[in-house]
Amino acid sequence: MTTIKEKAKEFTKVDRRDGKLALAHIYVAFIALFIGGLCGLLQVLVRSGKFTLPWGIGYYQVLTVHGVLLGLILTTYFILGFQIAAMSRTSGTFTNKQRSLGWIGFWIMTTGTIAAATMVLLNEASVLYTFYAPLQAHWIFYVGMALVVVGSWIVGLAKIMKYREWRKVHPGESSPLLSFMVIVNMAMWIICSLGVAVEVVFQLIPWSLGWVDKVDVLLSRTLFWYFGHPLVYFWLLPAYMVWYVVIPKIIGGKIFSDALARLSFMLFLLFSIPVGFHHQLTEPGIESFWKFLQVVLTMMVVIPSLLTAFSMFATFELRGRQLGGKGLFGWVKKLPWKDARFAVPFIGMAAFIPAGAGGIINASHQMNQLIHNTIWVTGHFHLTVATTVVLTFFGASYWLLPHLTGRVLTKQMNKLAIIQAIVWTVGMSIMSGAMHIVGLMGAPRRSDFSTYGGAEQATDWIPYQIAQAVGGTILFVGIILILYIVVNLLFFAPKGETEFPVGEVSENAEKTPMWLENWKIWLTICIALILFAYTVPVIDMIQNAPPGSKGYKFW
Amino acid sequence: MSKKKEKNPNLKGTLYSVGFVGLFILVSWFMAFYLFIDRF
Fold it and tell me: Could you say which of A313, A365, A445, A449 is catalytic?
C-alpha cells in the first residue's frame, strides 16, 4: 500500500514516460552541441589565419552548421525538453494524448533537423543561421526548417493542453509558477515563429523551387527579425525560470515574489516581439520613425530585466543574511559556491550584466552604426546565449538529467562541473572580449579570413583573431568536459534519487493578483503592440516594394 | 499591514548591487556614445 508521504513524493517526480520524452529532446540538444561546437572550433582556427579547412570544406558551410545547430537546434530542443519536465513536475503527468502529441512534434522536428542538416553538410545550404535572402539554399533546407517550427508548435500544443487542464481542475487559483512561465515562453515562441513560417513557406520555398524568380529581400528580412529577436528571449526565459524558481530552492531560500516573477515574464512577452527593426537599423526602406518606435519598445525590456536582477539579488541577500552574513556584502560568502547547480548558473547571471549593457548599445538607433555587422555583435550574443543561457542550461542539467535517469550527481562530477564552468568563463572572456574590442575596430562578422589586400586596418585585427582562436579552443575543451558529465549522468552515474528543485514563495511576499494570469488582457496588449509597430511599415514595404532579387549561391 | 513591512528585511546589499548594474550600463553606454560621436 502506498502511504500519503510516498504519494506526495511521487507527485514531485517527473513521470517516467514524460521523462523519456524530455530526455529524447535533450539527447538531440547535446549531439547538436558536439557537432556545432566542433564547427565553432574550426571557424576560430580558420579566422586566426593559421589553419585551412581540409577536403574542400567551406568556411561558410562550417559557419552554417555552427549557427544552425547551436542557435536553433541545441536551444530549441533543450528548452522543449526542459519545459516538458517542468510541466510534468508542476502541473502533473501528461495524459497519453498530450504525450503522443509531444512525440509527434518531436519526430517532425527531428525529421526537419536531419533534412536541413543533410543539405548543409552536402554544401547545398551554406546560408548561415539567418538564411538571409538573396542567398539561396536548396529547398529541402527550408522545408526542414519549416518542419522544425511546425514540430515545435505541436510539442507546445501538448503543454498548452496540460496547462488548460490544470486550470480547469483548479478554478480561481494561480497556476504553478513554473507551468505559467512555460506557457509564456511557448506563447512567445508561437507568436514570433509565425513570422519566420510565413517567410519560409510563402517566400523562400516557392523561390528556391523556381516557382517564382525573385524574392522581396526587405520583406523577408523583416519577417525574419520579427522572429529573430523574440527568439533570443525564447532562449533566455527558460534560464530565467531556473533563476526565479529553481535557484532559490537550491540555495535553501525562497522565491522573493511570485507576482514580480509573473509580471516580469508578461513584460518580456510584450516587449520582446514588436522590436525586430533594431536588427535592421541600417537598412533602407524602413522609415526612421518606425525604427525609433521599435527602439523605444526595445528599451522597455530593461524594466523586466532589472526586475529580475533585483529579485535575484534580494533572494541571495535574504538567504545569505539568514545564514549569518553580516555587513553590506557579507551574505555573498554564505552562498553555496561549491554546488554546481548554483555556481554555474550564477556565472551565467553575472555574464548577463555586460551582455545586457552591450545589447542596449546595439539597439541605440543611430549608434548601431558603430557596431553594425562587426564581430562585436558575435561577441555580444556569445555572452547572452552562449554564456548566460548555456551555462544556466548546463547548471540545470546537473539536476534535471539525474532526476530523469534515476541517478545522482557525484561529488567528483560536481567538482568537474565547476571546473567546466571556469574553463568556459576563461575561454569566453578571451574570445568574446577579443570580438568586442576588434569589432569596435571595424572587424566584420560572418567573414572568412582575409588580409583585405594587405590593408593596414585588417592587419591590426589579426592579433585579436588569434585571441579568438585561443578562447575558442578553451571553449571546445569546455564542450568536451560538459559532454563527459552529461554522458556520465545519462548512463554511468550511480543510481539514486535526485530532486527536481522547485522553490516556495517567501511568506513575506504579497498575494499574487489574478490579473497577472489573465491571458485575454496580456495577449490583447501583445497583439496590439505588434500591430502598432509593424502594420504601417509592412504595408509601406509591400506598396513600395524594392525590385525582387534572384537567388545567389556564392559558395 | 503586511508582515513584510513589520519585518523590514535588510536589502541594502541588493540596493547597491542593482545600483552597480545600472552604473555599469550607463558607463558602457556613454563610452560607446563617445566613440560614436567621435567617428560619425
Answer: A445
